[in-house]
Amino acid sequence: MYSLPGIVAVGYINEAIDEGNPSKTLESLLLPTANISDVDPDCAQHYQDVLYHAKSQKLRDPESVSKILWLDEIQQAINEANENKDRVKQGVTLIVDVNQCLEGKKSSDILSILKSSACNANDVISECADRYYEALEKAKELKTERVSSEGSWLKLTLQEKYDYYYNVDSKESSWVLPESYSHKESWLTEKEIEAFWKGYKQRKAYMHRRQMFIDNIYSIVKIQSWFRMVTARKSYLSRLQYFRDHNNEIVKIQSLLRANKARDDYKTLVGSENPPLTVIRKFVHLLDQSDLDFQEELEVARLREEVVTKIRANQQLEKDLNLMDIKIGLLVKNRITLEDVISHRTKLNKKKGGEMEILNTTDNQGIKSLSKERRKTLETYQQLFYLLQTNPLYLAKLIFQMPQNKSTKFMDTVIFTLYNYASNQREEYLLLKLFKTALEEEIKSKVDQVQDIVTGNPTVIKMVVSFNRGARGQNTLRQLLAPVVKEIIDDKSLIINTSPVEVYKAWVNQLETQTGEASKLPYDVTTEQALTYPEVKNKLEASIENLRTVTDKVLNSIISSLDLLPYGLRYIAKVLKNSIHEKFPDATEDELLKVAPDGFDIIDMTAGGQINSDQRRNLGSVAKVLQHAASNKLFEGENEHLSSMNDYLSKTYQEFRKYFKEACNVPEPEEKFNMDKYTDLVTVSKPVIYISIEEIISTHSLLLEHQDAIAPEKNDLLSELLGLLGEVPTVESFLGEGAVDPNDPNKENTLNQLSKTEISLFLTSKYDIEDGESIDGRSLMIKTKKLIIDVIRNQPGNTLTEILETPATAQQEVDHASDMASRAIIDSRTPEEMKDSQSMMEDAQLPLEQKKRKIQRNLRTLEQTGLVSSKNKYQDILNEIAKDIRNQRIYRKLRKAELAKLQQTLKALNEKAAFYEEQINYYDTYIKTCLDNLKRKNSRRSIKLDGKGEPKGAKRAKPVRYTAAKLHEKGVLLGIDDLQTNQFKNVTFDIIATEDVGIFDVRSKFLGVEMEKVQLNIQDLLQMQYEGVAVMKMFDKVKVNVNLLIYLLNKKFYGK
Question: Where in the sequence is the domain holding 829, given as residue range(s)?
Answer without folding.
Answer: 277-305+772-916
